[in-house]
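User: Here's a chain of 364 residues. Predict its fold as tokens.
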Amino acid sequence: MDFIDLKTQYQRDKEAIWSRLSKNMENATFILGPDVAELEKTLASYVGVKHAIGVASGTDALWIPLLAYGVGPGDEIITTPFTFVATIEVIALVGAKPVFVDIDPKTYLIDINQIEKAITPRTKGIIPVSLYGQTPDMDAINAIAKKHNLWVMEDAAQSFGALYKGRKSCGLCDVAATSFFPSKPLGCYGDGGMIFTNDDDLATQMRQIANHGQHVRYQHRYVGMNARLDTLQASILLAKWPHFEEEANARHKIGNFYTELLKDTVTTPVLEPTTTRSVYAQYTIRVKNRDHFIAKLKENGIPTAVHYPIPLHLQEAYANLGYKKGDFPHAEKAAEEVVSLPMHPFLTEETIHFIVNTVKQAVQ
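Assistant: Prediction complete.
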């Protein structure tokens, strides 16, 4: 059994994938080829924003806006300790300080009620993480940011396609970053990412930063980097695109089906009242004896994953931030108990029932 079934998806899409790849091979349009611009236009329209900038990874998609905003030493950015490390490594890379706020223990999303208490004169922005496939209450976060003259960047690496009050993730605040890592709801066959914004000046600057800071060739307006989205990865994403909405709906349906079957057995995911559709990038439950539970599922051929076993404030690389065990108890408790079950749009009802029955046996 696959944790994420990319093989079935490939068999469905391979003709379209190779058609696009072959065209690029024949035309030798490997760097910033026409498929990159087509993908940017397609996804900007889908999200409902003016600008989409394709970049080389989800990490670059988080990093480049910080550079464009001029974030640097002495600045603080508020975020959550319960996320993948990329969320804060980009803050550290520009010399700023991540300031953590604990999570809501039910949804694992940033606790909005604690954000304002973390704001200082050094705070420049807020990075809420749309974890496990749904967004936090972005309107509430935007209101806090506006009150304190801060910007908001949605870390939407796990939520592309999610709906918040009927609106698309990545189109809910000043700027958003998503990832096309293969296991994401919309994944390529390597690394890739995209930045979304309605801000014309910010978009221009970010596009130039991603291409060595150039505004025309060999004229460098900004200190930049090589963070261009590879044309072949854009081609793969475009080949997959016609089925994306169908897959997003399937993920939401399968996640809710899991919850219906498991809600009396384990702690199941809780959706925000504002979530119209979760894309369930992971279907994550909580169990008390996780190692035993994982071993039991493995015995039955069911793969699992833990997203994430150590919260970021307790990671060795960020010990200099001065946090200690007990500072963010909800994040720490979640890190000890969460475990993700197989989740992808091709799960059959029969397979789901097998997983569910095995879960029930494993927690007895």
